[in-house]
Amino acid sequence: MTSDQRRFQVFVSSTFLDLVEHRQAVTAALLECDAFPSGMELFPAADDDAWTLIKRVIDESDYYLLVIGGKYGSIDPDENLSYTEMEFNYAVAQKKPVMAFLHGDPDAMPVTSAEIDPDKRKRLSAFRKNVQGSKHVRYWTSTEGLAGQVALSFNRFTRLYPSPGWIRADRATSTESIVALAEAHSEIEDLKRQLESLKSSAPAGTEKLSQGEDLFVLPTLTEYLYHGPKGNDIDSDFWAHVPTTWNEILGAVGPQLLSEVEQEELREAIHEWLIVSKRLTLEGLIHEHLKKEKVKWDESAEYYPTKVKIDNEDLGTILVQLKATGLIQRSVRKRSVTDNGSYWTLTPYGENETIKIRAIKKGIGKEPALLTTAVADTALES
Fold it and tell me: How many CB atoms lie within 10 A of CB 311?
């Protein structure tokens, strides 16, 4: 029986939180190859301890697929090795065929995906060298590139290293084979459902991160104009701390991110949102600031914000938080070599959340038939 009549189980090994999107891409690529992946995030609850369960699933798998990014991972206190390295060593000891995919430029990875602990960095470097020295490896630099490498490598790998796999029911010769294939088909369907659910739920492990309706106070350099009753105009600025939520921020920038947006354009979108949607809040903060400055006050005084800016650090905080909670990702679209911009786009989960926040609910607003001619004309003119 040829390999194209079989379905193979592949154990996917990597660190988790920093490679959530990459694991999803690898899983999708394997499913497209009619294989079914296994990994810790997909394991059912069991009485076994974690390492016993890992070893059993590796034993049951036909192939072992390793992805190394920029982190070494959690260290087992007994073995003094990361779980990823322990999994690799066990798979090699069990003579499992190993596919290894290493990040091609780990020094260029963002800080949130890089190992900052000096000891773990040394361990990661030694682990990479061990894999490179013992196995044929391929390199990747983007989520899309990793998925492509897996798809291109898998079919050739199964021909070079044949494995029993699972046999199709219409070609099986025993009751056991039919039962095994039915179980495999059920698992593949379950994996597909889990992949679909990832589009509508936050990534695992993000429960303790600030998100949704949680409060975030955003420092803004606010320029304002104060026109006093006796012509005592003040044109100045101060740092205003604007209370908001992560849902408000996503609702502000999400529509631009439906395709992709350059990072500086994203900053400008935040500036525009602050000056328009947070105007009343800003006016209140300006009022408090002027009182502290002991500006002579009169109820007829006029004051309003004219320009709002956020600095690089706070923009970085917003980007990191939205990425860490699974809402945005860096765009992998190819551009000219002269384009040095950083581009961002929504994840499938982020797109769903943006739609929930920004889509107009039924019954909100006036019915078109009730609009007056004057209102309609004004809308057309604007």
Answer: 13
